[in-house]
Specification:
- Helix content is 39%, strand content 6%.
- The protein is built from seven helices and four strands; from the N terminus they run E-E-H-E-E-H-H-H-H-H-H.
- The strands form two sheets. It has a two-stranded antiparallel sheet.
- Helix 1 runs antiparallel to helix 2.
- The longest helix is centred in the first third of the chain and has 15 residues.
- About 12% of the residues have low confidence.
């Protein structure tokens, strides 16, 4: 599975279907069919941007393809978690988020799993987000936000394998 998902939002080029989008849709369909979370035989969750779909309904595979060609993917669905993409597969594809190995380690909690809070930030920012780019120091409000994200990764006590500071108060 390719980690570069920029094709997901490049449906048309000069008014014509983009070949990378067509190939990517097929790759997505095969991925969804291979996971029980994303399919139930001949139906998959439709991730098109049509108001009735948006990952809410299971539709026939050909109808999902048709919807994607017509309506595009829902915005910011870079990690296919509703179709069975796991947190560990998200790590392995660091290129999806342009995060190098040292920064990747800093964004994981001490027990080695990708926290849902950090994943939400990456889902909202998209695949072009590069956590390594620091052009200036953050303002006080932004610094408080970064401090809260770091707290989400801190252990409650030494060698705690199940909880973070944020999960304890949430």
């Amino acid at each position: 599975m390719s980690s570069n998902r920029e094709w997901m939002y490049l449906r048309l080029t000069n008014g014509l279907p983009n070949q990378s989008f067509i190939s990517g849709v097929e790759e997505f369909v095969q991925f969804a069919l291979s996971r029980p979370e994303g399919s139930d035989g001949n139906h998959i969750r439709c991730p098109c941007n049509k108001k009735k779909c948006q990952n809410k309904n299971f539709v026939e595979v050909n109808k999902a393809r048709s919807h994607l060609y017509k309506y595009d993917f829902v915005p910011n669905y870079h990690a296919w978690y509703l179709h069975g993409e796991t947190e560990s597969s998200i790590y392995k594809e660091e290129a999806l988020y342009n995060v190098n190995a040292t920064n990747h380690h800093a964004l994981t909690n001490n027990v080695g799993s990708f926290t849902t809070f950090v994943q939400m930030v990456y889902d909202a920012a998209g695949p072009q987000f590069n956590a390594n780019i620091v052009e200036e120091s953050p303002n006080p409000i932004a610094q408080n936000f970064y401090d809260m994200l770091n707290a989400a990764n801190q252990e409650v006590w030494p060698n705690c394998q199940t909880h973070s500071q944020l999960s304890t108060i949430a």
